[in-house]
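Quick note —
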Amino acid sequence: MKYFKVFEIAYLVIAVVSAYEVYQEWNVDRTRAYMFLFFLVFSLFMFFFRRFYRRKFQNRDKQN
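Predicted structure written out below.
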């Protein structure tokens, strides 16, 4: 079950790196910045999605 948490952290790392790239590329290459902005939003969505389901499964396992 710990590897689920590792993937959550990986999504956060991807989000931070993408945010940095958006900041760096915004005035240089707007198209590339939009691509990293998509990665940022997607990785944040996946982080919260994975966390929700991990907690849901943990609560279900505790009840049994």
